[in-house]
Structure formats: C-alpha cells, structure tokens
Amino acid sequence: MKLKTGLLAALIVFFGALYSGAILATEYIHRDLMANTLASPGCAVEADAVANASKSYNINKYSKKFCQSQGYGWHVEAIKDNGKAVCQDCAGTNSGKKQCHLEDVVVTCKRIKPGSVGMLPGKS
Fold first, then answer.
1. pTM for this structure?
2. Among the four 33, 69, 85, 123, which has the fewest Cβ within 10 Å?
3. d(Cα 60, Cα 50) in Å, to the nearest integer?
4. Is 105 helix (H, G, I), strand (E, B) or coil?
C-alpha cells in the first residue's frame, strides 16, 4: 500500500514538473510587426469615425490578421501600440463626413521554435 502511494506521489510530482515546464521548456520565436488597419466601411462624423476605428475589437481583429499573415503557427503575444487615427474625407453625398483607420499599429507575434517541443527523429 505504501509502495503504491509513493509511486503515485512520484508520478504526480514528475507530471506536475513536466506540465509547469520545469523539464520541457517550450521556446518561442518573437517578431514585432508594424501595420495599418483598413478604413471603416461607412462614413461618419469625425469623432464617431475615430471611435469606430479605435475600438478594441478592431485592434484585436487586425492584430490577429497581422500575425497570421506571417505564416502557419504565428499568434499575437502582445499589442504594443494602438497606433494613431488617420481620417480621409468621404466623396459624393457624404461631404463633411470621414472614414478613419489606424496607422502604425505595433504587434508582437510569437510561434513555437521548431524542434523545441516533441521528439525529433534520431534524438532521444
């Protein structure tokens, strides 16, 4: 009975250390990107257009797209700078209204370094 309890405790400690990364450390590759978002689809008063372009939903959505454009496995690590709003006048019947987008959004992307996780053929 004591042997089973001791073995169970040793396995829990081993897998706990494995899960926390003490035994297998995952390494990441990081990359900072700077990009611009697209303009909002409609025209609005400048204050509303800036508010729409600066919504956290839009920033998160475009940050994800920026990282995914780097290739398979890239994810958002952090959003370093939300950028600045830039507005353009709308043409036609919407005179006086504007379309805005964010310029110079800085995002840190990461992906798992190849070979840092799992078994490699021919290596133990």
1. 0.70
2. 123
3. 16
4. strand
Q: Encode pLDDT of 27-84 as tens digits.
A: 999 999 999 999 988 899 999 999 999 999 999 999 999 999 999 999 999 999 999 9
Do residues 38 and 29 make contact, with C-beta atoms less than 8 angstroms apart? no
What residues have CB less than 8 Å from 54, skipping those under 6 apart?
82, 85, 102
Give the per-residue SS3 of 11-73. HHHHHHHHHHCCCCCCCEEEEEEEECCCCCCCCECHHHHHHHHCCHHHHHHHHHHHHHCCCCC
Q: 99 with 43: CB under 8 angstroms?
A: yes
Q: Other C-beta atoms within 10 Å of 98: how many?
A: 22
- Tell me the sheet residues that pair with 63: none
